[in-house]
Amino acid sequence: MKRMIGLALVLAISACASAPPAPSLAPEKVVEQFMWNYTATWNKHDSATIARDFYRMGAGVPEQTESLEKGFVNLRTQGYHHSDIHEIKACIIGGDTAWAGMKFSRLTEAGVPLPPKDRASSYELKKFEDGWRITKLMGGDAGKPLACPAG
Predict the structure, then answer these.
(1) Does residue 8 carry a pLDDT above 70?
(2) Tens of pLDDT along 97-133?
(3) Are 105 and 86 a contacting pair, CB within 8 Å?
(4) Are 36 and 89 in contact (CB under 8 A)?
(5) In this structure, which long-range contacts are made by residues 112-118, counting pairs with CB atoms below 8 Å and at least 24 apart in sequence?
(6) Local structure of 87: helix, strand or coil
(7) FRET label pair with 109: which of 11, 20, 43, 65, CA 20 to 30 Å apart?
């Protein structure tokens, strides 16, 4: 009986070893997923996690956390509750740099859009040892299609 269990274990391990590797995501899809994760954290108003895990814009984590918290206070005074993402597009623009564009609406708790209803932002990202980080935020034109920067 012990031999049968041992043989079954060896066969199971060798089957796993010969199985094809799980497909890895294309780099653009990794950046796109990073932006979806960023939005999920944004919708929790989690300033500390955004500053630590998503931003790398010059200020240290404590300063960035404080700035984000002030921003969330301002948004909440306008009735903001969460953002609804309509589209995210990501592009690799260099070996360790990327661009992402996002179309979204800012909503109240009741789901009513804050004006303007349609918004857009774009982001520059850089890949660090600990992963992708947003290094620059820019406005966008919600009326135009999201498109990778030329050149």
Answers:
(1) no
(2) 999 999 999 999 999 999 999 999 999 999 999 999 9
(3) yes
(4) no
(5) 114/78, 114/79, 114/80, 116/142, 118/86, 118/142, 118/143
(6) strand
(7) 65
